[in-house]
């Protein structure tokens, strides 16, 4: 555990003017306000091929998974696509496993063009639980994202505050102790197997 805790924020969008990226930058402000250090892991900067377990890892895959593994906490950010999280984030998570997420604190953030992106957050929460991560109860959503930002900054303060608090909680709970194993966690071998 680093002192101060280090938080990696994964941008699950490839758009140049991504609202997800803008929101994660706000979350990283919360990280810094809470005394942590933060790093934006922008998936535009990594060449992550569609996962094929028969292929060897590339340098970019190794760099990305190492950055996630070395972080004390992770914030996953995504736009909502068809009621779920983005394919680019799914592929990035597919390259990860228990080594990157087991017992790690994870915060969730989703943005949507329309109303509250609850299903995207629920789906991400399920994936993180399957990886034995500790997902923060506090999550952040930015509905109607096109009107929440102007010139790359939040103009909707209520959403901005909730996003900053997500960053603060990631620092506050970065060193939470894992629960003792239970029957369910001992049976969770899905990410350890390949087809």
From TrEMBL:
<dbReference type="GO" id="GO:0016491">
    <property type="term" value="F:oxidoreductase activity"/>
</dbReference>
<feature type="domain" description="NADPH-dependent FMN reductase-like">
    <location>
        <begin position="6"/>
        <end position="145"/>
    </location>
</feature>
<dbReference type="InterPro" id="IPR050712">
    <property type="entry name" value="NAD(P)H-dep_reductase"/>
</dbReference>
<dbReference type="InterPro" id="IPR029039">
    <property type="entry name" value="Flavoprotein-like_sf"/>
</dbReference>
<dbReference type="Pfam" id="PF03358">
    <property type="entry name" value="FMN_red"/>
</dbReference>
<dbReference type="InterPro" id="IPR005025">
    <property type="entry name" value="FMN_Rdtase-like_dom"/>
</dbReference>
<comment type="similarity">
    <text>Belongs to the SsuE family. Isf subfamily.</text>
</comment>
<protein>
    <submittedName>
        <fullName>NADPH-dependent FMN reductase</fullName>
        <ecNumber>1.-.-.-</ecNumber>
    </submittedName>
</protein>
<keyword id="KW-0560">Oxidoreductase</keyword>
């Amino acid at each position: 555990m680093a002192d101060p805790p280090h938080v990696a924020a994964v941008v699950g969008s490839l758009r140049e003017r991504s609202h997800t990226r803008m929101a994660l930058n706000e979350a990283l402000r919360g990280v810094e306000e809470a005394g942590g250090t933060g790093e934006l892991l922008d998936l535009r900067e990594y060449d992550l091929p569609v996962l094929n377990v028969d292929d060897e890892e590339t340098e970019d895959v190794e760099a990305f998974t190492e950055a996630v593994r070395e972080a004390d906490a992770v914030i996953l950010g995504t736009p909502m696509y068809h009621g779920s999280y983005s394919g680019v984030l799914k592929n990035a998570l597919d390259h990860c496993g228990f080594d990157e997420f087991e017992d790690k604190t994870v915060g969730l953030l989703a943005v949507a063009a329309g109303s509250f992106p609850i299903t995207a957050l629920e789906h991400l929460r399920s994936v993180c639980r399957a990886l034995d991560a500790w997902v923060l109860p506090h999550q952040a959503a930015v509905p109607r994202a096109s009107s929440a930002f102007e010139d790359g900054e939040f103009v909707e303060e209520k959403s901005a505050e909730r996003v900053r608090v997500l960053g603060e909680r990631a620092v506050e709970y970065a060193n939470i102790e894992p629960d003792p194993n239970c029957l369910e966690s001992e049976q969770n071998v899905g990410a350890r197997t390949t087809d």
